[in-house]
Amino acid sequence: MRITKKMMVTVIVALILVVTALMYQFTGSQDKSTKDAKIISSEKIEEAVKTTESNTPTIFIHGYKGTLRTFETMVKEFELKDEDKSMVTITVEPNGKLVYSEEALKQVNDPLVQLYFKNGTASVDDQLTWMKAAMKVIADIYDTKSINIVAHSMGGLVGTKYIMETYNDKNYPKAEKFVTLASPIKGWVKYVITNPAEEDLHPNSAALAGLYSDRNEFPKDVEVFSAYGLQDTLVSVDSAKGLKEFTANIITSGYMDNHSYIHEDIEVIDSAYSFLEFN
User: Phi-psi category of 89—alpha, beta or left, where left has phi over 0 and alpha has psi -120 to 50?
Assistant: First the structure.
């Protein structure tokens, strides 16, 4: 039988109550100074339980023209593996306004947070600005200083810039683990430019050139897992493995997938789950 966090919390509470009762019995035979020893309050129990729970949010960032369903399969599989995990969504309107339910966010102890950009063709910098605003909300609601990031396609560029720009900034939660799925770190092979996103994704774009020139700023202790599709005709293997030139703390792995299916592949999902050490 798999031991869940809820079961662990129940056991911990029970142990604390038993220890409290024993302390109370023991103090009955001691002198007054010992009798004055504090009995653990309910607040202390809550505090002890809270420290046993992992509330590091995992942030999902979709790619170019991504939808609310981009990570649907992956999230469902994560939830099946751990009943304490649950998905919540922060939607970013085209004008940058964040739309979310604070109550819904607070109800999840081990959150899988989907960041959905309604303007899926916005530039990397615009999406980065929106992500930063959302991460301040996450940091406040979950009282956390750290996050994990799972990103598909262009979302990997946004996640990379977020990590590089905020890692030493206490105003934002810093990334501990970073999963990229077919992310065009060196651009993609679609050369027609009709919007800001496509301009940034061009192999010779200023956005990619700037990211690469700053690659030494990528924090070396962030663990990276980059998956790539061996049947991907949009993002080359070399491009999807591009973060190898940013950090040595990286694992890369190829799968028999195209660009759009890689986040649906159960093998990829299991690999990401294990990398994030949810087991």
Answer: beta
